[in-house]
Amino acid sequence: MSRLPRSLAVVLTLSVVLLALYPVFGQVVFPNKHAFLMQKLTGIMIMAVMAMSLDLLVGVAGLVSLGHAAFFGLGGYMLAMLSPEYAAANLWLVLPATLIAVAFAAAIVGYLSIRTSGIYFIMVTLAFGQMGFYFFNDSKFAGGSDGAYIMVKPAVEILGVSVLNLGDKRTLYYVGFGTLVGVYLLLRVLLASPFGRVVSAIGVNENRVRGLGFDPVVYKLVAFTIGGTIAGLAGFLAAIQYGFVNPATLSWHHSGEALVMVILGGMGTLFGPAIGAFVFELARMGFEAMTDHWLLPMGAMIIAIVLVLPKGIGGFLLQVFSARSKVEDGQ
Amino acid sequence: MTGEPKVVLETRGLTKSFGGLVAVNSANYRFVERQAHAIIGPNGAGKSTFVNLLTGHFPPTGGEILFKGQQITGFPAHKVSRLGVGRSYQKTNVFPVFSCFENCRLAAQAQLPSSMRFLRPAGRYKEVNEQADRALALCGLGSRRDRVAGTMSYGEQRQLEIGMVLATNPEVLVLDEPLAGMGKEESEKMVGLLKDLARHFTLILIEHDMDAVFSIAEVLTVMVNGTVLESGPVEIIRASKAVQDAYLGDGAEAY
């Protein structure tokens, strides 16, 4: 991925700073709704992480997955199952254990699905996602269709001293924020690396990549595993936030929502799908407040954005700002 | 032939059939080091299938392929490429959204022992960058380094296609119709480039343009219906009656 136009980088950085300062000024701007909005934004930032992880597959590697939520849900269920019922789990143990388990699951699903492509890949990932859904839906040990609770949030301690209280809404907000920024930067580094360049090229023309001397299967599998693991991290955080997991988090509806965020935001732009998550969730919140039939205006909005901005919000921003930076350079 | 010519690539009884259709029928070829070898033949003669077999894009149904004496029969395309058999495509097959440099850089990157490297930016591998720039200069696109490939003319994209093959540091260049669809001026430029390359590489050229073939190639093979009709130095093949009947037309009027 090439560098962002400087003016766009500035705008994005300012937005991120604004997001970082929300807990400070939110009380003043939205006195009645501040706590609610802060919680909402935490959830959105976690979804943005999931959307970016899916963009690595869909937008960069050209792997359109409809089973991505399975890894998100698995991340949440891992926390629920690893947490003692009435005591706090140790984050330094449950987080790595969760990520390893999700990575393992993603590698297996990837191994079995990556040799297919196009519509078949969509179908195979959809099938695996639904397998995950029914596994947790029909299993007693994980609460079945009712889901499972995480009564006590994990403790984050260093040498026995608590450093982060995940029960505190503001702290959790910053954990979500830090994860969003961290995952974005991590994926940028990844995409600029030799590995990332090969994966980007596979998204453009897989056969040519093979002709140059790379085995696309291996690169796609590693990308799929990384994307799945990051989705698992997002699911893990969401489970901490809500204190609850249910099978719906694995369902294809949830995968579909993430896919819509990626498409709205602009496939392959990485920052776009994060914006897509905000647009999607904030619009849903607005429409839900207006009408019971909120899906109707929601659908209309999605169609409108896709029609007007075929490359998504991110693609549109890139176009606008790269045109501007050319003018600035006098080209 | 004089001395002991070193055979780089060899096929023995190479066969490929698709169902009942035998596209390539027990083809025996020896490609000699630093020789420009052209394969001609009418449409459907099996030339492209032969290229796909040679570069691992299809597994053969029978026979074997040897690269410098080593068995490479059935090797997948990416392995064949890494060994040193580079291939350009009949249809333009560059990455249109990447710059010229990035196209060649990626090709050069394939020479790293592994591209499973996740942290250091790809642009900071000095040897890879140098190899990419060398390839760009060789294919005549040094001045187009930062142009987005998809915005260049068709002829330039064909040049880039060859630049990418060069960037993989090949010993053998397999070029599948490099002149296809080119205008007269672009063709002349490309022929110049190919003549240049013929001095440094083993060249296997599939081409329809007879003038170009005769001016570049030293050895000519005529393929008809999946089999080798005749093979030998250009002048001899040119004069061969059988070849003229099968391919060049009944008389010599065209030339």
How far do the termini of chain B sit from each other? 27 Å
Radius of gyration of chain A: 20 Å
Q: What profile does the largest beta sheet of chain A have?
A: 2 strands, antiparallel
Our measurement of the CA-to-CA distance between the termini of chain A, rounded to an integer number of angstroms, reads: 22 Å
Low-confidence runs of chain B: 251-255
Strands of the widest sheet of chain A, in order across it, are: 1-4
Task: Tell how many strands the DSSP assignment of chain A holds.
Answer: 4
Describe this structure in words.
The complex is a heterodimer of chains A (331) and B (255). Chain A has 331 residues and is mainly alpha-helical. Chain A has one domain (6-330). Helices cover 73% and strands 3% of the residues of chain A. Chain A has twelve helices and four strands, in the order H-H-H-H-H-E-E-E-H-H-H-E-H-H-H-H. Chain A has helices at residues 6-29, 34-60, 69-82, 91-113, 119-137, 169-192, 194-212, 216-242, 252-265, 271-290, 295-308, 312-328; strands spanning 148-149, 156-158, 161-164, 244-245. The longest helix of chain A is centred in the first third of the chain and has 27 residues, at 34-60. Chain B is 35% helix and 25% strand. Chain B has helices at 47-54, 77-83, 100-109, 126-138, 154-167, 184-198, 210-216, 234-239, 241-248, and strands spanning 7-18, 21-32, 36-40, 62-67, 70-71, 85-88, 172-176, 202-206, 219-224, 227-233. In chain B, the strands form two sheets. Chain B has a six-stranded mixed beta sheet with strand order 6-7-8-3-9-10, with helices on both faces. In chain B, strands 2-1-4-5 form a four-stranded antiparallel beta sheet, covered by helices on one side. In chain B, helix 3 packs parallel to helix 5. Mean pLDDT of chain B is 89; it is low at 251-255. The interface between A and B is medium-sized, with 24 and 36 residues.
